[in-house]
Write a structure and sequence with these properties.
Rossmann fold; alpha/beta; CheB_C; hydrolase; Sig_transdc_resp-reg_Me-estase; 14 strands; chemotaxis; seven-stranded parallel β-sheet
């Protein structure tokens, strides 16, 4: 089997050495070039094009966003963003994900040895998943049309017990690699009268606030990073904070969320399984669970619990996934009632509400 060929682009010589050494030591991965900036990368691309590019976003001569957009126009290629945990880095990384990057890994300003210990395996796994990603060029990623629904289709919550069917609906979405673009396509298509949504997107700490703020600026619905005891109401999407789990709870006639610390589940915090299991207990037949593009199996077990509790379940179909990993495993376990294209997901959400 041909090795995955990787190019590393980072202005720090130390970071280039660490990343190239880490990836080059992994079976089935070959680092073809490690260069200091996009200008040098462009020269190398004239003679050899890699399968995956690991890219810093803040560099001299040409920034990573400009380079990424050029790549996605010329020859769409899986790009993994390697960014620092700073507010500025988070905002820039959101631009990169919107421009077509498939994933983000964080690098420390200091302590590269600790990075190797804590995140080395994650970086290798992310690069392997990126190599399998199915990408579309920027011109192909057209926004889905906004779906219209009359306001009387989403009614206030009743006072029924949590596990009985009510007119109040909750939608729980779990996603990972490729999910930032997929969520943007779904959420921007939803009208203000949409049911309340709770979302886990695998993303490092400090990045989710910038992600939620960006979506909020694009959507008719409100999108925010979840805070403890936030209400789940029509027209609002709550996104789990990076590094913390998100759970749904029934509080009398209302749904609220809990934001909790705790150990990683399926190597993730937040975990899609944790969210789905809480939705199964608290909403049951009032809930719709959706699993979308991503690598691994997080969410498969929890989605099955939700289906067994009477909830409706959907998966993004293979053709529209960037990485058909999480949905595939959920389908394999019998957790999914139907698989649908990404472009149909907003309409499915509104049909669930009505």
């Amino acid at each position: 089997m041909k090795a995955i060929q990787v190019m590393v682009v980072d202005d720090s010589a130390v970071v280039r050495q660490v990343l190239a050494g880490l990836l080059g030591a992994a079976p089935g991965i070959e680092v073809t070039h490690a260069v200091a900036d996009p200008v040098l990368a462009i020269e190398r691309l004239k003679t050899q094009w890699p399968d995956v590019i690991v890219l810093d976003v803040e560099m001299p001569r040409m920034d990573g966003i400009t380079f990424l957009k050029m790549i996605m126009r010329q020859r769409p290629t899986p790009v993994v963003i390697c960014s620092t945990l700073t507010e500025k880095g988070a905002q820039t990384t959101m631009e990169a994900l919107a421009a077509g990057a498939v994933a983000v890994v964080t690098k420390p300003r200091l302590g590269l040895k600790q990075f190797l210990h804590d995140s080395g395996n994650d970086l290798v796994a992310t690069v392997r998943a990126a190599a399998r990603a199915k990408l579309r060029s920027a011109t192909e990623r057209e926004p889905a049309p906004t779906v219209k629904l009359t306001a009387d289709a989403v009614l206030p919550a009743g006072s029924a017990p949590a596990m009985t069917r009510t007119t109040d609906r909750v939608v729980a979405i779990g996603t990972s690699t490729g999910g930032t673009q997929a969520l943007e396509e779904v959420l921007t298509a939803l009208p203000r009268v949409s049911p309340g949504l709770v979302i886990v997107q695998h993303m490092p700490e400090k990045f989710t606030a910038a992600f939620a703020a960006r979506l909020d600026s694009l959507c008719e619905i409100e999108v925010k990073e979840a805070q403890n005891l936030d209400r789940v109401i029509p027209g609002r999407a709550l996104i789990a904070p990076g590094g913390r789990h998100l759970l749904l709870r029934r509080n009398g006639a209302q749904y609220v969320v809990e934001v909790r610390d705790g150990p990683a589940v399926n190597r993730h915090r937040p975990s899609v399984d944790v969210l789905y299991r809480s939705v199964a207990r608290s909403a049951g037949p009032n809930a719709l669970g959706i699993i979308m593009t991503g690598m691994g199996d997080d969410g498969a077990a929890g989605l099955l619990e939700l289906r067994n509790a009477g909830g409706s379940t959907l998966a993004q179909d293979e053709a529209s996934c960037v990485v058909y990993g999480m949905p595939k495993e959920a389908v394999r376990r019998g957790a999914v009632q139907r698989s649908v294209p990404l472009g149909a997901m907003a309409r499915e959400i509104l049909q669930h509400a009505s």
